[in-house]
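Hi U.,

Before I forget, here's the chain from the pilot set. I'm dumping it here mostly so it's searchable later in email.
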Amino acid sequence: MKSYRVITFLKNLSMYLILTFFALVMLFPFIYMLTTSLKLPADTFRYPPRLLPREPAFTELPGYPDKLPLYYVEKDGQRREFALVRSNIRIGTFAPPENPSAVVERFLSEVTPTGQSVTVNGQERELFQVLVDGQSVPMIQLSQTTVGEFVDPENPEIKAYQNVRLSQPVEKITWHFENYQKVIELQGLDRALTNTALVTILVVIGQLATSVLGGYAFARLKFPGRDTLFVFYLGTIMIPFVMLIVPLYQLMVLIGWTDRLAALIVPWIFTAYGTFLMRQHFITFPKEIEEAALLDGASRLQILKDIILPASVPALATQATFTFLYAWNSFLWPLVVINVGNEKNHVLTLALNVLRGRASDTPNLILAGAAIAILPPLIVFILGQRFFVESVASSGVKG
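Structure:
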C-alpha cells in the first residue's frame, strides 16, 4: 500500500513538473515582453539578451564633480568593484633591441624619445629612454594601447589600470516604469486606449443584446421559415471577412461614417456566432419553467429578463469574453476605415502600428505599448476563464 502511494505521488509530481515546464515555455514570451518594456534602449540591444532589466552602476567620490561608473577589476587575486576616474591613457610595451623578450610596460608620458633609431629584423625602430630599476635604458616600442585608471571607492589610494573596453561594468537591476509614460506621450496612447475601451464596451453590449434577443427568438418563438432563416443566418459565418471589406467600406462612405468611431461599432453589434451560441444555450432550458411563467401572466420579455438570463451567466460571460478579445484586437477593419493621420480616432492597434515606425530605435517603448494593449484582454480572459468550463458543464439550470 505504501509503495502504491509513493508511485502515485511520483506520477502526479512528474505530471505537474511537465505541465509547469510547458506553462513556463508558453508564458516566457509574455514575461520577456514585460521585462524588456522596463529596460533602457541600450539594454534591449545587448547580446546575449538578458531577462531582467539592468543598467550601469555609478558612485560618487570626493574631488570628482560627476558620478563615476563602476567596473570589475582584478586586484590582488580578487574581483573587486573599482570606479573609473580616467580613460584613454596611452600605455606601451618596450624592450631592449638586443633582447626583445625582456618586455616592460610604461605610460607613454613616462618615456622620452631619444631622436635615434635602430634596425631590428630589417626594420628601423625609434629608440626611447625607459626608466628600469632607477636606470634609463634605451628601448624600442613593441606595441601601444589605451587603458583606464580605476580606484577603489573605499580607498582611492588603491589604483589599477586595465583596458576599459574589455572591462566588465558593474550593473544593477532597475525597473524603468517611466517607459510607459514616455510611450503614452510619444504616440498619444491614452486617447487610443480610451477609444479602444469605448469601442470594445459598446460592441460587447451590442452583441450581447442582439444575440440574446435573436437566440431566444430562434429557440422559443415559432414563426414561418424560422429554421430556414436560421440556417441562412448561420451560413454567413462561412463568408470570409476579406470579401466583406469592399462592400462594407462603400456602405460606410455612403452613410458618411468613414474616419469615425461609429464605423467600428455599429457594423459589429450583430453576430451570427453569438446568436447561434445563445440559441443553443436557450434550447437546453426546460420549457416547463417558461410555460409555468406564462400561465402566471409573465410576458416573453419578463421570462427572458427575470428567469432565463440569470441562469445564463456562463454563456453570456463566454460570449462577452470572446467578443471583448475580438473587438480589442481588431486591426484590419480600423486600418481600412480610419485614416492613419486621424490620430484622435485611432484605436490601440493603429497607434501601435504607427509607434512601430516612430520608435523603431527604442524597442523598449514598442514593447511597452504592446504590454498596454495586451494586459487588459489578458486580465479579462483570466477573470472569465472559469465561465468557459461552467458553460460547457452546465445545462442552463442550477439546482
